[in-house]
Structure formats: C-alpha cells, structure tokens
Write a structure and sequence with these properties.
6 helices
Length: 142
C-alpha cells in the first residue's frame, strides 16, 4: 500500500502542482510509489479509517490543505505533507523534504504554505475556482 496525496482537484493551481510532481518526483522515487487523488473523488471515510477514524481526513481539511496519508495511518497536512512527499521521492528532493520537516523550519514552512494556499487563485495556473472558500466568523488559518 502506498501513501496517498489528497488535494483539491477543483483548483487548477493545485492540480498543476500535482501533475508536476507526478512527472518529476516519481522519476527519482527510491522507496516505492505514491498515489495522488483529488479529495472530490477520494474515499475520505476509508482514508480517515486508515488514520484511526479521528476525523483527520475530511473534505473541509482537504479543501484548505493538501494531505499526505501514510499506509500506517499518519496524516500530514500542508507544508508537512509536501515535506513527506519530497522525502518519499528520494535524491535531492528527500533532503529538501527533510529540511522542511526540521523543527526550526516547520513554522516558516507552514507560514509559506498557508500564504500560497490563501493566494493560490493568484498563482500561475490559478483561477477564481482556486480561491479558498470564505467561512464567516472563522479566523484565517491557511
């Protein structure tokens, strides 16, 4: 069983990033594969059950950040999901992923990820459909 990368398939920017990863990161894969699935088509209940059924894998979360679900049921979100993907890819990518996972770097990586997520509709390939939904009364966490 391979890890699963869950992303927002309605977002052109997110889909473009995943296609880039499928083209470039899989070429250096040293330790098995990974599967990318838009959350709109993923069996989120099964992925959440794999993670212990604690509500970590939801459409609401996957709409706001990419998720990396391991075969052992660990769930990483946002920058740490990207870090795990890079580490899984091997080669120089694995070193970059390991740096992103370092305790002193994690907060900065998280801030950068959340900024990109908030502005993904403005990124190359992004469209208005990429904009995160506004939730009235909710603090912006992404």
């Amino acid at each position: 069983m391979d890890p699963v990368l869950v992303f927002d398939g309605d977002c052109s920017f997110c889909s473009s990033c995943v296609r880039w990863g499928e083209r470039h990161l899989r070429q250096t894969l040293a330790s098995g594969g990974w599967e990318a699935v838009p959350f709109q088509f993923a069996d989120l209940a099964a992925l959440d059950a794999r993670a212990g059924g604690r509500g970590e894998v939801t459409a609401e979360r996957a709409e706001r950040e990419v998720l990396w679900v391991t075969p052992a049921g660990r769930v990483y979100g946002g920058a740490q999901a990207v870090a795990r993907l890079l580490m899984r890819s091997g080669g120089a990518w694995a070193y970059l992923g390991a740096v992103l996972a370092l305790a002193p770097v994690r907060p900065v990586a998280g801030l950068a990820y959340r900024w990109v997520a908030r502005n993904r509709h403005r990124m190359p390939g992004g469209t208005a459909a990429c904009a995160l939904p506004h939730r009235p009364g909710a603090a912006s966490s992404v």
